[in-house]
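Translate sequence into structure tokens.
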Amino acid sequence: MEKSLLTGKWDAEKSTFSQGAIADLVKDVVNGAFRGPLTSSYARDMFKIRSTVDPDQPFDYLFNLSASTVDDEKAHELLRLTLAVACLHAFVQANWTGPNLDVKPSDVIVIFPETSSITDDVLDAKAIAELAYGGEPAYHLAESPTFLRLAQLLINPPYQRIQSAAWWRLRVALVHQQILDDFVALPQSVLSSLDPLMPNFAIHPHIAGRLLLEQGLLEHHFTHDKSAAEYFIRAARATGLQYELTGALGKRTKFQQTVLSQLVLLAESRETEETESEHITTEPPAGNKDVSDTKATNVPEALTLNDDTLLERTEFTSSTPSAPNSFLSHLSPANQPPLHPLDQCILLSLCLNVRNTSPSHGLTSEQMSPYVERVISHPINWSIHTMALLLRSRLESSRTRTVERSTLQLQALIDQMPTADSTTSERLLYFHSIPLPSKWEMERELALRFLSLGVVKSALEIFERLEMWEEVVKCWQSMERLDKAIAIVRDLLEGRKAEAAVIISRGKATSGNHRQVFDSAREAKLWCLLGDLEPENALEHYKHAWSISKETSGRAMRSLGGYYFAQGNFAEAIACLRHAVAINPLLSRSWFILGCAYIREENWEGAKEAFGRCVMIDDEDGESWNNLASIYLRIGKKADNEDAKVSICGARDLKSNLN
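Result follows.
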């Protein structure tokens, strides 16, 4: 049953060994039917609000999550894990994969008459406040955040009998990271607890491959590119994926007369029982026919290019790669077999790593495109195909002939999220194996795409609907309407401008005009934004943001540190930036400014530490490496001078003694 939860597939042959009520709950969760398990009698025992508790208490005081009618310890832990997975995937379905969720927190949580004031909106507002972490606020328009908070509370306590609990902690933590404004450091316990898992799953190649791939995506999320690449390569070895980036003769334009060597990715999955269970057809598409002719009916539509010059795909004229010693020379570049879906995920991850480790120019896009085209050519899974089309859309956004399809494809991917063209279980099957962005992140990307094309009004409408006020302010600044930007932020803080109706209902009336209540992290962010817009009052606003957040806002301390540095008050800048890096030590920009402040104060040891942290976060940060080298030279000269002073003093003492 643990394996079924991890892989998202219920093994019918082994289901006879998993009879009972809890096994039925596991099967429902695997099949994407979350309402049944979350409203079961087992769940209601755990999700029962204590009648004697103040509703303003945190979540872990509201519920007795250890309560259960199951006596067996192992069965109780399995039940707790099953409900945690159901809560996590319900939240993912609502905010990432769709279709629309058919269960609400109020359907799950048992509310007594004494606590009848606790509604869905109150629970979600409390969850958003508690999901703020490391000084970073959680996105306030995320749907049903109560489910993510419940998943955290269910998965975080120790498990003695369930091996895969540590893996699910990683998955919950990664989803949590994606709703925060900036990524923050994970507890070391989350990372160290994964190491003992690999020997347990070594006999299952595709499960071992999933674990390595997800660890690589974690490193990718924190921009540790070398470590991520190592995990991706190990994942490919575990699943038996063979791939090679090579060249083959072909054409890219309709009027091209001479065939030239074109970049192509040759890839082949290892044949296993698991590969066969995916029902992958081994008959590749004939010739260079369009992807749309071979697409599955339950995957997003790949829009055609319809360009008068460029071909839809590279037309390979050679049946063998250009490299004579290629170990995949038996594959035809124009007629490759389908890949296992997990191998497709690995190729997309390797593609992302190409982007992270190379400068942003045309050569990088050319190197990434073969990875994406290899996955798009055989659409198998909804989420994987969505990710591949999204990557192609990003690659095409900078080219004149493809920018139109790029924007339309991104819009189409956003529009198909709420549709029911595929099952929930299929959409979640490989969700944890790809870096699929949330609904609001995809819409934000579309707005930024509009902004890059000069369509500022459309971008502004999207940002306002998503209530991403920092981006709204940037739009008004680009139109040279600073007064409008300041007015929006002030109206939000003073209650004259309302956010979405669902957010208003979460607040409590504090005055006659029903001023909405922000959680402290979001209000602090708005005060910092106002400080950025009003330089003459910046210091006052930043200090107020720090006070409002009860001294937890990393943004406030970063802003104060930057302000003092610009004013030449380096001692105060150091104090503030020290607070900032203590709250969130993963933002290299804070460490960089801190290092510069130490240099101005000639505190070489402090500067060495700060720039050392910069290169630990990003080992290709050239400026930090340069500053670090200069600091070591300074420290060396200082040491030499001190040695010289000691020698001179020693000589004087010797001379006086002789006299």
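Note: The mean pLDDT is 86.
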